[in-house]
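Hi support team,

I've been running sequence recovery on a batch of backbones for a student project. Most finish fine, but this one hangs at about 90% for roughly twenty minutes before it completes. I'm not sure whether the input is malformed or the queue is just slow. I've pasted the structure tokens below so you can try to reproduce it. Let me know if you need the job ID as well.

Thanks,
M.K.
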């Protein structure tokens, strides 16, 4: 069955840590030239390198339309600070921010902070879900227009439109309200890799974009159906989720056949299934999977960003555009508009709640 949903494409711009902002800005601009929905920048307490969220805040003024999605680890961090930083990225990018929610599982990472020992993954993902919930509450805690600029006194809040969150969870509690005005998108886009449980449950409850790692379109479709079923069970409209297949790509060959079924490529943990081939074959694979309805699009992680991203944009994406399978211009200015997602209503304004 053919999918009538638009094709969505995103790319990672990571690789070995670099400390030159022009490197990341150049890659983001290249992805923007191909009208990709967003770029991601990975991060982890287990690896050295600059902070991904800070880097993309620096990249934001050097780009115009591309979405910017850093990995943000919710383990060992304060949800209040995380929500403020992501909201700030949305402001400095004028509505193009997202965050890739992740957790920190190792004892070595826990020792960096010394607050608590390593925790099993199930508990960490429950905490990550709470962090995503709190972030959304804090973004809503200052209604649109709550911060009024007065010529005499400067910016002052309209306290009738500022709300406490009063969240109580197993790992933390947050009173709120937030300190950053409500982001341009209302809620920056939340991305979760939902391949495995219990991350899949967190994705179903809180994600706007769910990444899945699968070696066949049938496997990807099975995960997608499970995520959408779980989302519906939580009262969400499944049509508001975008499910992208995560694929690590090596386009070093001029053109060669991909690994059969993709299963035989080397597993690269955390970056999706491995593809090795050429830009034309990659375009064919994307076309096949999307037309089958298995996924809404792809998140492509170039194994060598400087080389492979150029081949993705000028080879694979250009071919998809030539086939009228992918857009040639951005439909709007925000990441939510790129993804076809509405700006969320403010929960506190809807309830008429007041402090």
């Amino acid at each position: 069955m053919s999918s009538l949903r638009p094709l969505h494409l995103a790319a990672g711009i990571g690789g070995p840590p670099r400390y030159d902002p022009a490197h990341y800005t150049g890659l983001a601009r290249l992805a923007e030239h191909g009208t990709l929905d967003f770029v991601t920048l990975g991060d982890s307490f287990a690896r050295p390198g600059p902070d991904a969220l800070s880097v993309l805040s620096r990249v934001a003024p050097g780009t115009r339309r591309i979405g910017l999605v850093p990995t943000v680890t919710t383990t060992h961090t304060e949800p209040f600070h995380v929500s403020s930083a992501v909201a700030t990225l949305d402001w400095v990018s004028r509505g193009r921010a997202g965050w890739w929610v992740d957790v920190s599982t190792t004892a070595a990472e826990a020792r960096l902070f010394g607050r608590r020992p390593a925790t099993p993954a199930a508990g960490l993902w429950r905490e990550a879900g709470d962090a995503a919930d709190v972030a959304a509450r804090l973004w809503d805690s200052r209604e649109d227009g709550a911060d009024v600029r007065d010529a005499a006194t400067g910016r002052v809040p309209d306290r009738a439109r500022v709300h406490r969150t009063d969240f109580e969870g197993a790992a933390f509690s947050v009173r709120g309200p937030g300190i950053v005005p409500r982001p341009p998108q209302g809620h920056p886009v939340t991305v979760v890799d939902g391949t495995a449980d219990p991350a899949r449950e967190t994705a179903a409850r809180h994600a706007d974009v769910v990444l899945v790692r699968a070696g066949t379109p049938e496997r990807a479709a099975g995960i997608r159906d499970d995520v959408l079923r779980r989302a519906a069970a939580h009262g969400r409209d499944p049509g508001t989720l975008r499910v992208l297949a995560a694929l690590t790509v090596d386009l070093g060959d001029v053109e060669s056949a991909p690994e059969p079924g993709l299963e035989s490529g080397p597993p690269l943990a955390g970056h999706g299934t491995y593809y090795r081939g050429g830009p034309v074959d990659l375009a064919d694979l994307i076309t096949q999977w999307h037309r089958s309805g298995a996924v809404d699009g792809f998140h492509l992680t170039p194994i060598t960003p400087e080389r492979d991203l150029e081949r993705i944009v000028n080879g694979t994406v250009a071919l998809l555009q030539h086939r009228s399978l992918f857009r040639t211009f951005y439909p709007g200015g925000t990441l939510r508009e790129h993804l076809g997602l509405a700006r969320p209503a403010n929960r506190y304004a809807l309830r008429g709640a007041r402090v």
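--
Follow-up from support: It reproduced on our side and the slowdown came from queue contention, not your input. Residues 282 and 316 are 6 Å apart (CA to CA). No action needed from you.
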